[in-house]
Amino acid sequence: MVVTGPEGKPAASKEEDLELTRKIIMDSIGTLDDSEEVAEEVAEEVAEEVAEEVAEEVAEEVAEEAPKEEEAETIDTSIPYDAAAKLAYEASDKSMAYADFKTKYEADAVALVISKQKVVA
């Protein structure tokens, strides 16, 4: 006869299931001469299984409750389009307004690029 739990109902927890399994095993080996040794071995195995399952459950709960790592702060590494003109203006004597300086700086840069191009005849 297989006992599934109180009044034939399934076990309410993993621990109860393991205990009922242990009891069934113990009842079936009760007639053996070395049943005490076997019972101890079975009890140890069941205890180890329960300990492993509980340890896994605790580890999962701890992992769920652990604070999430904060996302790294985003740092803007983009370079403004007119960065070269701004740097040149800061290094200049600032004898003219920035807007005028920028226009002249860009025109000079374009002229320099054009002068470096090969002439195709």
Number of strands: 0
Mean pLDDT: 81
Shape: rod-shaped
Major beta sheet summary: none
Helix content bin? 55-70%
In angstroms, what is the radius of gyration?
A: 40 Å
Low-confidence stretches: none
Q: List the secondary-structure elements in sequence, H or E.
A: HHHH
Structural class: mainly alpha
Distance between the termini: 105 Å
Number of helices: 4
Proportion of residues in β-strands: under 5%
Write the layout of secondary structure elements.
Blueprint: H1 14-28, H2 35-65, H3 83-91, H4 98-116
Helix pairs in contact: 1-2, 3-4
Describe the structure.
There is one protein chain. The chain is mainly alpha-helical and 121 residues long. The chain is 61% helix and 0% strand. The protein has helices spanning 14-28, 35-65, 83-91, 98-116. The mean pLDDT is 81.
Question: Outline of this structure?
Answer:
By secondary structure, the protein is mainly alpha-helical.
